[in-house]
Amino acid sequence: METVQKPLVTVFVPVHNGETYVEGCLHAIQAQTWQRLEIIVVDDGSTDATVEAANRCARQDSRISVLRLPENVQLFHARLAGMEAAHGDYLLSVDVDDQISDDYVECLLDAALRTDADLVICDHLLMRTPDGSVRKSALNSTPADREYLVPKEHVDYEYYRHNVGNAPIDQSYVVFWSKLYRRDLVERALPWLREECMPIIYNEDVLYAGVFLHLASSTAFTRQGAYVYGTNDASAMRSDFMERLSKIAADQLEVLYFLQRFLMRSGADPKLMDLFQAWKAGNWGFLETRYAYWRMQATRNS
After folding, report:
1. I want to staple 15 with a disulfide (CB 3.0 to 4.6 A). Which of 48, 96, 105, 181 is the partner?
2. Dihedral of the CA atoms 218, 80, 195, 269 (nearest 10)?
């Protein structure tokens, strides 16, 4: 009797100058209860000791490889490089300064296999504050009627209903790292994603979410497993205020423009396009709110 091989899951870690975190991140992935893994460190032109630290781990574990990009291409294209290098039946990504529960991969994969969904979204998002404490993400407002382990079609309609007016933010929809992607979904998305030529740092999650949620045949949510992301309130003021704001605005405009073209060219119906237009306006309003906050902080720190 032929033995059915367990699915291979590729976990890729995009990193730029993350020597402080990379070994801890890799150790957490290595310790996953699901052990049939391909682990790819995507080094995005680091100038510190990131590569040396990653190579130390790779010498001790044959599942780990290091993909060195020749220059700093920024986060959007670093993620894209990770997807293109992956060999797994399923793919997921972990940011280098974040943490995952030991059963994170197994829980998301179990949800995919149970529901036959080509996209699984983890709804158990936690945040680590600068003082080291961990608590429920303040940015993730989960609807009371959300169904779990139930494959759904057309979740992009739900996605574009969020961030409009006073609608609560459902962070799990947006972020790239809360999801498990089946290979055939990735292969459908790659031709579209390769069209993006701008070096996007900010809002790249939004672009990815818009593409994957629209192309997914079915999507399932799970509350099992946990993803803990880091926060740093001081990071917004690390670079020149106006330079940073200019980059955020440029990236957000590029993302909105890309998604509008993508939806039109992929045959989105008029109802979805109407939702998108309202969502686009709300997204820009959110940037204005952030601008007011950052400007207040910059004035206070000057």
Report:
1. 96
2. 20
Per residue in 45-102, pLDDT tens? 999 999 999 999 999 999 999 999 999 999 999 999 999 999 999 999 999 999 999 9
Per the listing, tokens 């992929």 go with 266
The amino acid at residue 202 is Y
Residue 51 structure tokens:
């590569």
The answer to whether 241 and 298 have CB atoms below 8 angstroms apart is yes
Phi-psi region of 132 (alpha: psi -120 to 50; beta: other; left: phi over 0): left
* CB-based contacts of 228, cutoff 8 Å, min separation 6: 98, 99, 100, 101, 126, 127, 128, 134
As a whole number of angstroms, the distance between CA 120 and CA 123 comes to: 10
Global pTM value: 0.90
Q: Which pair of tokens denotes residue 249? A: 């605005």
Integer-rounded Cα radius of gyration of the chain: 19
Is the CB of residue 211 less than 8 Å from the CB of residue 160? no
Contact 216, 151 (CB under 8 A): no
CA 291 to chain centre: 23
Closest alpha carbon to 116 in 136, 90, 142: 90
